Amino acid sequence: MKPPAFFQHASALVESTRIGAGTRIWAFAHVLAGARIGKDCNLGDHTFIEGDAVLGHRVTLKNGVAVWGGVHLADDVFVGPNAVFTNDLLPRSPRFSRVAERYSDPKNWRVPTRVLRGASIGANATIKCGVTIGKFALIGAGSVVTHDVPDHGLVLGVPARAAGWVCECGRRLELDDASRASCRPCALHYQARGGRLRQIP
């Protein structure tokens, strides 16, 4: 029998067969059948991945993170310890007779959430379902995200509000009078316009 291409700690429970090579799944993690996990990911202790959740390549989940069905984490996403995702805007117990029919099909209640490439979510942040967090965005620790976050956006607070921009490397950018910024260590240059930040030559 061919050994798995990923590492599974002896106390982890892995029911999915769709896990990429080089991924490491640590103690007391639980990955349900149907979950899709890319290559070279790192799932810390006590992480939980529900069926229909999708993780791209090189995703890092720190300890205590649960990724529910309908949540899609793109390549190179970082999720800090105990950050919280949700997937239902009108949560009720499916055992409550008045809503039981609604919960018979996830299409009736599940609200997708997307975290795009390279974004980082700080420890203990909460992400309301239905939002999109843009590429290389940075969510501050403890923030509650209720709206979409643009590419490279830095958001902080409860509820999370725009607090600036960050480079691909995560360093905060300082805009000049022409709404331009540079990250010296990365030699990358940016232009802010219309509430968006784009990389420029």
Question: Briefly, what is this?
Answer:
This protein has 201 residues and is mostly beta strands. It is 0% helix and 34% strand.
Fold and architecture overview:
It is a single chain. With 201 residues, the chain is mostly beta strands. The chain has a single domain, classed as 3 Solenoid (UDP N-Acetylglucosamine Acyltransferase, domain 1), CATH 2.160.10.10. Helices cover 0% and strands 34% of the residues. It contains no helices and 26 strands. The chain has strands spanning 7-8, 13-14, 18-19, 24-25, 30-31, 36-37, 42-43, 48-49, 54-55, 60-61, 66-67, 71-73, 78-79, 84-85, 113-115, 120-121, 126-127, 132-133, 138-139, 144-145, 153-156, 161-166, 172-173, 180-183, 188-193, 196-200. The strands form 5 sheets. It has a 10-stranded mixed β-sheet with strand order 1-4-7-10-13-16-19-21-22-23, with no helix packed on it. A 6-stranded parallel β-sheet has the order 3-6-9-12-15-18, with no helix packed on it. Strands 2-5-8-11 form a 4-stranded parallel β-sheet, with no helix packed on it. A hairpin with a 5-residue loop joins strand 22 (161-166) and strand 23 (172-173). The chain is globular and about 55 Å long. The model has no long low-confidence stretch (mean pLDDT 96).
